[in-house]
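Entry 14. Ran structure prediction on the chain below.
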Amino acid sequence: MSNLRSKNLRKANFYGHAIPYLEKIELKGKFIVIEGPDASGRSTQIELLSSKLEADGHAVMNAGLRRSELIAEGILEAKRSFVLGKRTISLFYAADFADQLENKIIPALRAGYVVLSDRYIYTLLARDAVRGISRAWSHNLYGFALKPDILFYLDVDPNELIHRVFEKNSSLDYYESGADLGLSENMLESFLMYQKLIAKEFRRMQRRFGIIPINGNRAIMEISVDLQKRIDEYLLIR
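Output, structure tokens:
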């Protein structure tokens, strides 16, 4: 019985120094991350994957950026007021992430859940790098992050992305357009330039973090079938 139990458990693997009391914990579940820009279809794919995995008999929990009950509202207010510097906003996001990691993600993984995260630290690292924050500083900031078991990036051409954004919203988001960087006085041009910079940063991180690029320019169900097949193979679902 103890041998069977040990096969189902694995030691948690962190990028740097873990939160001290979590350093030697063992996990039973699987951690899957889907990254991608706004309107790339991440949330839709997470919903489809959740339904599929639950139908296959897995307990599933969803996570994502800015979902901490303690911090999320503070981040929204800070972004609305434009009063905080870029490094301070990064620290806000790190606090949000730490709260979720400690109180949601790791407990679910210890209980054997499949955790699906709609974005993770990689979006935060890319945003920081594009805004001129030292990569070393950002990587150290998120050193307590748990490494996912499998990591995807929905790669969508910025010109396709702009159409999806306007289908979803009536206007462009200030920060997702990089307006704070002064890239262009034209918000549309700024959006395209910013998204290209973010995509370039993800390509730069691809090898280091084992990011699996997924062609996000395709139809929803085509992407879904692709993701489900890859995840099924990883989880050895037959």
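Residues 29 and 54 are 14 Å apart (CA to CA). Will compare against last week's run tomorrow.
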